[in-house]
Design a protein that fits this description.
The protein is α+β, with helices and mostly antiparallel strands. It contains 7 helices and 6 strands. The protein starts with a helix and ends in an 8-residue tail after the last helix. Bound molecules: zinc ion.
């Protein structure tokens, strides 16, 4: 099942490593409000699993529900929909945390000379002190560590931070 990007994002907000049930339920809810048995049908999941996913989404303020009493059947039908404001707030909070972490990294990159592996910078990027502790050798491939031009990293970080600051949740279609 191919999930939309927004459904994937919702899943990430609830559970950092993804969750098939939450992904499927989110995909159904993106189409609009639905009664929980309908959600189970559309998501092709057992009602119990759908409820568990919905409660977890609710804990995260991403969905809301209303109960409708069915006089003939004597039970409540529960209708669920995405809480767009709640979702926006959850996303904002998550984005702010990432921004904080990236800003700390950016400050570090700006104010320190970074030593990196000469063969592949993704192997290691450390301070002078940490490079000295390793005798200026890359722990991955053994290449020497040299002061790196961190302009590219600084630009990349600045760009990602700016994108996160302007992130917006698209309106539900
Ligand atoms: Zn290396």
């Amino acid at each position: 099942m191919k999930g939309s990007r927004l459904a994937e994002l919702i899943t990430f907000l609830v559970n950092g490593h993804g969750d098939e049930e939450i992904l499927r339920v989110s995909n159904v809810l993106l189409k609009g409000e639905a009664e929980e048995r309908r959600i189970a049908e559309a998501a092709n999941l057992k009602l119990q699993l759908v409820r568990r996913a919905l409660y977890r989404l609710h804990e995260n303020h991403i969905v809301r529900y209303r109960k409708v009493k069915d006089n003939e059947k004597k039970w409540y039908d529960v209708f669920w929909e995405l809480d767009v404001d709640g979702l926006r707030m959850s996303l904002r909070k998550r984005a702010n945390k990432v921004i904080e972490a990236l800003t700390r990294k950016l400050e570090y990159e700006k104010s320190n000379i970074i030593y990196a592996c000469t063969s592949d910078e993704s192997h290691l990027r450390v301070s002078l002190e940490q490079a000295a502790e390793r005798d200026f050798n890359c722990p991955v491939c053994g290449s020497p560590l040299y002061p790196s031009d961190n302009g590219r990293v600084v630009n990349k970080l600045t760009d990602v931070i700016s994108k996160l600051e302007h992130i917006e949740v698209v309106e539900r279609r």
